[in-house]
Design a protein that fits this description.
28% of the residues lie in helices and 29% in strands. A hairpin with a 3-residue loop joins strand 1 and strand 2.
């Protein structure tokens, strides 16, 4: 019971800190948990959803102009000098840019694709981004998602679920994942990850050396 009270107080304190800040804030600013893996909210990130015919050359040109990255293959994410591009579905990309650049990115996409059937939307404030790091990061996610985490490799991107909510997973390296979820369920997702990463909860999946 005392642990639940402490967690409630911590969340209340984060909410008060968020209210006291001027300007945009992320979903759970400063949220961090050190277990057998580390879970942390990653702060503000610009995210733009683009629905379009991904086979069009002008789509590849404009997303590269915005991010510096090449078009990703299916279930992949690519990085460039100004951002990243994730494959979401056969007609959808998710672009990651600096938070303050998301609006300009949408305007640039709209202009370049004005004569095509396309839609670009700034979803930065509707999403939350978390980082999970540690030698047993795969194991933590294997408790929560039906995705085949064992087969994921650096550079892979998956849309899936974490327990009861939709999420997307990106693997930047062998000891880390980034998790994207709706902002409205950020507290739920953080608690899922924190509980799965608690010391003593290891299930024996081989750690990364």
């Amino acid at each position: 019971m005392s642990e639940a009270v402490d967690e409630a107080k911590a969340l209340e304190a984060m909410g008060a800190a968020q209210a006291a800040q001027a300007g945009p804030v992320s979903a759970l600013p400063g949220a961090r948990f050190e277990g057998y893996c580390t879970v942390e909210e990653a702060g503000l990130c610009g995210m733009v959803t683009l629905r379009a015919d991904l086979s069009l050359a002008k789509v590849a040109r404009v997303v590269k102009a915005v991010t510096g990255a090449e078009m990703p293959a299916r279930l992949k994410i690519t990085s460039g000098a100004r951002g990243r591009i994730a494959w979401m579905s056969p007609d959808e990309l998710l672009l990651f840019v600096e938070y303050g650049e998301a609006g300009a990115a949408v305007a640039r996409l709209d202009k370049a694709l004005a004569t095509s059937h396309a839609l670009a939307v700034d979803v930065s404030d509707a999403r939350a981004l978390f980082r999970l790091t540690g030698a047993r990061a795969r194991e933590v996610l294997m408790k929560l998602t039906p995705a085949d985490i064992r087969r994921m490799q650096p550079g892979d991107f998956r849309r899936t679920r974490l327990a009861q909510v939709p999420a997307a997973l990106y693997m930047p390296d062998e000891k880390g994942f980034e998790i994207i979820a709706f902002r409205s369920v950020a507290g739920y997702v953080f608690d899922l990850l924190r509980n799965a990463a608690r010391p003593g909860g290891e299930v024996g999946f081989p750690a990364v050396e």
